[in-house]
Every structure is written in C-alpha cells, then in structure tokens.
Amino acid sequence: MYRTANPLFLTCETPTHAGSGSELGVVDLPIQREKHTGFPKMEGSTLKGSFREAIERRVGRQEVAKFASWNAPDTKIQRIFGYDDGSLDTAQKEALKQCFTDKKNQLNNEFSGCVGFADARLLLFPVKSMKGVFAWITCPQVLQQFALDMELAGVEGIAIPKGAGLVPETSNLTLPGKDGLNVVLEEYAFGIRADKDTSQFCEWLSEHVFQASQGFSQQKVKHDVVVLPNDDFRDFVNLSTEVITRTKINSDTGTVEQGQLFTEEYLPAESVLYTLALVAPEFSKQTDKMKEAEVLNFLKENLPGVMQIGGNATLGKGIVRTRLMNMATAKKAEKGAAKQ
C-alpha cells in the first residue's frame, strides 16, 4: 500500500500527554505505552490527527476553507489525509463535493488517505544527572528497534552502539570511580565506558534529529547520551515520567469539588521520539492524481516545525518540534561513510 517510509523526529518542548484514557492504577490518566515493553509511545492515530490539524491551520483553517479547485491547498489536504467534511458548514461541504464529483456527476469521496504514520517510539529519555544537568538515556533494545525502523526507510550505515553502559568519548557526564568511570542519574550510579560507536551515533543524531534552531540540543546530544541496560531504562521510563496532581476548587466552599482530584502523567520536556511517515500515490478515483513525490513534498512544505500534540493545550502542554529527515542528505552521508 505505502511505498516509502520517511523518518520523522519529535522533540518535546513542554511535557506532553498523549493519553490512553482513565485507569484504576496509581495514575488516573496515564500516557500511551507499548503493551509488551511498557515504553512510552504515541499512537499513529494520535499523530495523524494532530498533523492533519496542524497542516490545516497552516494552509488555511477549516472555517475559511473554500475548496476553489482540485489543486487548491485545502483540497489537497482532503486528497492526502482522506475525505472528511464533518467540521464544514453547508457551503463548504457543497464546494468540496464539487471537487470530488466526476464528469458523470458521481461523487468519488470513498478512498484511503495516501499518507500514514507509524506509532512514535521513544528514542531518548531525559533524566536528571549529577553532571551536565540532565542526560538522555537509551538502551540496546530501543537502539536495535531504531536500526530496524531506519532500514525500512532505506537509511543504512548508522553506527549503532553495541552493548550497554556506554557514553560518547567526549561525555560531560562522567565521574571517576573505583573501577573506572561512573555516571550518576537521579540517585543511582552506573559504571560506564567511553565508546567510539556511541560517539559516531551521537554525531548522527545531532545532524538529523534536531532543527538548526536547536543549537543547544544539537551540541548536547553529541556528549550527553548514556546507553543503559534494558532493565534500567525500563525502570526510568516507568518511574521518572512527570505525574501532576490536578484539582478543581469549588468557588463557594473553597474546597476541592467531589471527584475533581486526579493525577495526569506526562512525557517530560526534552524527550525525543521518532515515527515513520508512510507515503503512497493518491488513492482517489479522479484522473489527475498526486504522485508519491508530490505527496511527500506537500508534507515537507506544510508540516509545521513547532506544533501541539496531545491533551491540555490550554495549559501549554504538548508543544513539540518536528523534523522530517532529509533522505537526500542521509544518502550522501552514507556514501561518504562507505568511502571512508
């Protein structure tokens, strides 16, 4: 169905709540997690809805959409993401129908969108560090899955660190210990060693994950990543997310209203996730269809660099920076690495 997969990186600027609904556990409103690992994630449906809304806002808000022609930007959104007139007024619905009506006066609005998004997986998780303020942690299981996903997108030649207890050779996090180097994360000390592959991997992250405007993060990721054992990483991502208690005060009594004391879980700011933007040629039944490259170019041109994902937008939560990986640049880098 989809012909190409393009890596898309997400960096949380503020704590982000992509919720899984209410539960009876310790946290009333937890975030989405993988069932088999417990690692945080964002559902593909969450991403697709958020990206569509963000592009609609950038191209032209739905309430002012005119659908003037088949190739108008607001019509292209319907062609790419799928036909949806649920939020349109009567005049807009009629204009949209005209765009999708063929010469035989038949409405061809039943087709699949030609762009999709895989679940966003966690790549780097921020943890308080005794040196360097905070460190990004990852683990062999996460890195192995990342390498497999990058292969699906045709990205090869990434120097994936092998093993655990690793930091870049230029790490700013290390402290001397009895048996070598240590890093102290939260209140836990871990024995580590400097590793060349980890250095090369962090250089790759600096080049491809962050926007040019994120100069601090681009430099920090070169030095302040720690590859922990799988079990330790699992414990951090389960126990070190942000959990906030929310209340609603009754203005008459000055006390908490009945049933209005609850807790919410958030991915902390500086968390880094990645997804795959899946692209195919247009599936509509009209003769003038967008090709695969046109669909991808529309996405590149109109996906905002900063957008909101998840709940509590009015509280400033869920502000995320996006970066769709430039595959042409990645291919040149691979060729250069191969020659070396």
Describe the structure.
The chain is of the alpha+beta class and 340 residues long. The chain has helices at residues 44-59, 73-81, 90-99, 140-152, 196-208, 215-220, 230-239, 292-302, 327-339, and strands spanning 4-12, 41-42, 115-117, 120-128, 134-138, 166-167, 175-177, 180-185, 188-194, 225-227, 242-249, 256-266, 272-279, 306-308, 319-324. Strands 1, 2, 3, 4, 5, 10, 13, 14 and 15 form a 9-stranded mixed sheet that branches. The chain has a 4-stranded mixed sheet with strand order 6-9-8-7. A hairpin with a 2-residue loop joins strand 7 (175-177) and strand 8 (180-185). It is globular.
**Low confidence ranges:** none
In angstroms, what separates the terminal alpha carbons? 37 Å
Percent of residues in helical segments? 25-40%
**Helix and strand succession?**
EEHHHEEEHEEEEHHEHEEEHEEH
Major β-sheet annotation = 9 strands, mixed
Strand segment tally: 15
Q: How many DSSP helices?
A: 9
Structural class: alpha+beta
Mean pLDDT, all residues: 91
Compute the CA-based radius of gyration.
23 Å
| Gross morphology | globular
What share of the residues does DSSP label as strand, in percent? 25-35%
Write the layout of secondary structure elements.
Elements: E1 4-12, E2 41-42, H1 44-59, H2 73-81, H3 90-99, E3 115-117, E4 120-128, E5 134-138, H4 140-152, E6 166-167, E7 175-177, E8 180-185, E9 188-194, H5 196-208, H6 215-220, E10 225-227, H7 230-239, E11 242-249, E12 256-266, E13 272-279, H8 292-302, E14 306-308, E15 319-324, H9 327-339
Parallel strand pairs: 5-10, 6-9
Antiparallel strand pairs: 1-13, 1-15, 2-4, 3-13, 4-5, 4-13, 7-8, 8-9, 11-12, 14-15
